[in-house]
Amino acid sequence: MRGIACVKAGDGFAALRAIEENRPSLIVLDLNLPSVDGRTILKDLAANPATSEIPVIVVTGEPKPDLQHALVVLCKPCDPDHVAKIVADHLPAPRG
Q1: How far apart are CA 23 and CA 74, in angstroms?
Q2: What is the rounded CA–CA span in Å between residue 4 and residue 33?
Q3: How many CA atoms lie within 13 A of 8 on its CB side?
Q4: 29 and 57 in contact (C-beta within 8 Å)?
Q5: 76: which of 30, 31, 53, 64 is 20 to 30 A away, CA to CA?
Q6: What percent of the chain has pLDDT over 90?
Q7: At 59, which helix (H) or strand (E)?
Q8: Residue-wise pLDDT tens digits, 65-75
Q9: 74: part of which helix (H) or strand (E)?
Protein backbone atom coordinates (compact mmCIF):
# COMPACT_ATOMS: atom_id res chain seq x y z
CA MET A 1 0.00 0.00 0.00
CA ARG A 2 1.24 3.41 -0.86
CA GLY A 3 2.41 5.51 2.06
CA ILE A 4 2.22 2.67 4.58
CA ALA A 5 5.33 0.95 5.89
CA CYS A 6 4.86 -2.79 6.30
CA VAL A 7 6.93 -5.30 8.24
CA LYS A 8 6.57 -8.96 7.33
CA ALA A 9 7.26 -11.84 9.71
CA GLY A 10 7.63 -15.46 8.63
CA ASP A 11 6.64 -17.09 11.90
CA GLY A 12 5.19 -16.34 15.31
CA PHE A 13 8.52 -15.59 17.01
CA ALA A 14 9.48 -13.17 14.22
CA ALA A 15 6.06 -11.53 14.51
CA LEU A 16 6.47 -10.99 18.25
CA ARG A 17 9.96 -9.52 17.70
CA ALA A 18 8.69 -7.25 14.92
CA ILE A 19 5.82 -6.00 17.08
CA GLU A 20 8.19 -5.32 19.99
CA GLU A 21 10.72 -3.51 17.80
CA ASN A 22 8.32 -1.53 15.61
CA ARG A 23 5.23 -0.86 17.76
CA PRO A 24 2.95 -0.90 14.70
CA SER A 25 -0.20 1.18 14.33
CA LEU A 26 -2.11 -1.87 13.08
CA ILE A 27 -1.42 -5.60 12.80
CA VAL A 28 -2.64 -8.03 10.15
CA LEU A 29 -2.27 -11.45 11.77
CA ASP A 30 -2.71 -14.92 10.31
CA LEU A 31 -3.81 -17.49 12.89
CA ASN A 32 -1.87 -20.31 11.24
CA LEU A 33 1.78 -19.47 11.99
CA PRO A 34 4.77 -21.69 12.66
CA SER A 35 6.41 -21.60 16.13
CA VAL A 36 3.82 -19.46 17.94
CA ASP A 37 0.25 -19.54 16.65
CA GLY A 38 -1.77 -16.42 15.95
CA ARG A 39 -4.26 -17.09 18.77
CA THR A 40 -1.42 -16.99 21.31
CA ILE A 41 -0.04 -13.81 19.78
CA LEU A 42 -3.49 -12.21 19.84
CA LYS A 43 -3.97 -13.09 23.53
CA ASP A 44 -0.46 -11.85 24.41
CA LEU A 45 -1.08 -8.56 22.62
CA ALA A 46 -4.37 -8.05 24.46
CA ALA A 47 -2.79 -8.85 27.84
CA ASN A 48 0.14 -6.45 27.40
CA PRO A 49 -0.66 -2.78 28.23
CA ALA A 50 1.98 -1.67 25.69
CA THR A 51 0.21 -3.50 22.83
CA SER A 52 -3.39 -3.93 23.93
CA GLU A 53 -4.60 -0.86 22.03
CA ILE A 54 -3.08 -1.90 18.69
CA PRO A 55 -5.91 -2.86 16.31
CA VAL A 56 -5.55 -6.40 14.94
CA ILE A 57 -7.06 -7.66 11.70
CA VAL A 58 -7.07 -11.46 11.72
CA VAL A 59 -6.84 -13.57 8.58
CA THR A 60 -7.88 -17.19 8.91
CA GLY A 61 -9.06 -20.24 7.07
CA GLU A 62 -11.24 -21.24 10.02
CA PRO A 63 -14.96 -20.95 9.24
CA LYS A 64 -16.07 -19.29 12.52
CA PRO A 65 -13.15 -18.47 14.78
CA ASP A 66 -13.97 -17.37 18.31
CA LEU A 67 -11.74 -14.31 18.67
CA GLN A 68 -12.65 -11.64 21.16
CA HIS A 69 -9.57 -9.44 20.69
CA ALA A 70 -9.66 -9.07 16.91
CA LEU A 71 -10.94 -5.85 15.35
CA VAL A 72 -11.89 -7.59 12.09
CA VAL A 73 -11.74 -11.25 11.02
CA LEU A 74 -11.20 -11.99 7.32
CA CYS A 75 -11.66 -15.51 5.99
CA LYS A 76 -9.28 -16.96 3.42
CA PRO A 77 -9.04 -16.71 0.53
CA CYS A 78 -8.90 -12.93 0.81
CA ASP A 79 -9.00 -10.52 -2.10
CA PRO A 80 -5.91 -8.29 -1.74
CA ASP A 81 -7.88 -5.17 -2.66
CA HIS A 82 -10.45 -5.96 0.04
CA VAL A 83 -7.68 -6.47 2.61
CA ALA A 84 -6.09 -3.15 1.58
CA LYS A 85 -9.44 -1.36 2.00
CA ILE A 86 -10.01 -2.89 5.45
CA VAL A 87 -6.49 -1.87 6.51
CA ALA A 88 -6.97 1.67 5.18
CA ASP A 89 -10.38 1.95 6.89
CA HIS A 90 -8.98 0.90 10.29
CA LEU A 91 -5.50 2.39 10.22
CA PRO A 92 -5.24 4.90 13.06
CA ALA A 93 -4.31 8.51 12.35
CA PRO A 94 -0.55 9.11 12.17
CA ARG A 95 1.17 9.48 15.51
CA GLY A 96 2.62 12.86 16.06
Answers
A1: 22
A2: 23
A3: 1
A4: yes
A5: 53
A6: 40
A7: strand 56-60
A8: 777 778 888 88
A9: strand 72-75
